[in-house]
Design a protein that fits this description.
With 477 residues, the protein is an alpha+beta fold. 35% of the residues lie in helices and 20% in strands. Helix 9 packs across helix 14, helix 11 packs across helix 12 and helix 12 crosses helix 13. Belongs to the FGGY kinase family.
Amino acid sequence: MRFLGIDLGTGSLKLAIVDEGGREIASSSAAYAVTSAQPGWAETSVDAWYAVLVDAASRLPANEREAVRGIGFSGQMHGVVPADANGRALRPAMLWPDTRARALLDAWPEPQANPVAPGMAGPLLRWLASNEPHIAAQTRWALQPKDWLRVKLGGTFATDASDACATALAHPSGEWDEALIDRLGLPREWFAPLAASHGNGGALSAAAASALGLKAGIPMATGAGDTPCAALGSGLSASGDALLTTGTGGQIVVMCADALAPAHGLHTYRAATGAWYRMAAMQNVGVALEMVRGWLGYASWREAYDDAFAAPASASVGFLPYLSGERSPWMNPNARGGWLGLGLDDTRGTLMRAAFEGVAFALRAGVDAIRANGTPLDAMLLAGGGSVDPRWRQLLADALRVELRAVDCPNAATRGAALLGGIAAGRLRIDDIASLAPTAKLAATPKPDASLDERLARFIDLYRRNEAWFTNARESA
């Protein structure tokens, strides 16, 4: 008996087949581009999502695909796919790094139960209604990315609380905020009914089954957002369990039995299990490091790591990684990045090392926001493809002042999605999930470093000094 997890990420799609014991049997992945037709836009053609799904599925062993009896979905959160009554996308998907709607956040005056960012479905749909009325007029469904993909495979028009609560159009519980939707002038019927993340979200169509090499009629779970799926797949279950994920963005997730009081720059969202989690969400982790690697001309990540960590940490060079604005804890879509303090004797290794430190310090700002609101953090699980190198792990542990234990699960969100598929198929129970948690091994223990603390303080001061400049530069552009 096998279950297939599909994780629709920002820049790639991942598949994993797991067995009834939660062990990963096979996996594959394929990448696609995030395009920017205009400054600040972040989009992907949904046709690319489906094409890479078919490609990635073809590289899974045929006998393992034959044994799949349940399918679950994990998806990048916040963005939106405007679709017609049949689920056909009417334009490219608008994604969470998108900042085109930054001037429209006045519809969400503070205080809010959760911070609102311009790349969330609410601001993006408000922008769509004003700037692409011809698309808005044809729209029947405003779907979250993973929900569009499930519909494409024959599933029902539905969403789950973990995704809905992060659209800026719903209550923290995930229930749609109809009063807000009406005030924004958006049609209520655009928004799919809620279902449990592990609930049955339809059956795999014959056409999709043929394309993917699976059996037709396989039950599909509604699915959940990628962060709650990663928490589920990593084995987080008890209140206080914490996880750091490093991918395109970065998330610090702490499980909680009940909703916590609102806190500036932090999110309190629904988990895939129906519980809650507090989160600091940073946009500029892998995406910033990938850009820096390209700018500096490193042919491989190995070369970038070796050069960066061979270079001594600079006492003068600092890097702000905010290439696409920032969420936690600053909630500043106008923030921008760059190096400061360069001298003629600095090398590209110095610049790459400063970039790693800058990203670690940006994550530390999120950790400190959680700590400041009453949640102690001295140990976290570690997951995500951007946290493999042991030198980078040690820098993260030192900068965050936490013990890091790496989850023995290379595809945590995909595994979580597969487990949801097993529950939807009636082969697993939600109460079984804690017992299926993967092992976690010690990855790094924080070491005291006074010079690192000084560079952290300089980083925070640099951001503060440039905050007004970011805003003024954007307003005058």
